[in-house]
Design brief:
2 helices; 20% helix; globular; 35% strand; single chain; alpha+beta
Amino acid sequence: MEFSNKPFFINVTNKFTGLFHKEFLLNAIDIDNAIQIVISTCSIDPLNYNIQVDEASSEQAKKWLEEEFPNGDKKHIVIDGDLQIAELIYNPMGNPYG
């Protein structure tokens, strides 16, 4: 997955408990665009979740997408290939928080 604009890391936490929910890497024009993409495409409700956005370098994004578990599975799943959205998975059994 190549990024045509800027890669952004999106960290989503529960507003009420402060617990981690999900982490995404996506391609967007700017921070506001990244927030809108994650809300609409990933079904994140901004009334229930805090959305923290950090701009990433192309090298960071590429490294993140190349990481694998010891069994060879990728540490991410592609949510939408056309919009270039990937979700980080923390263990090979799937996302323990979602």
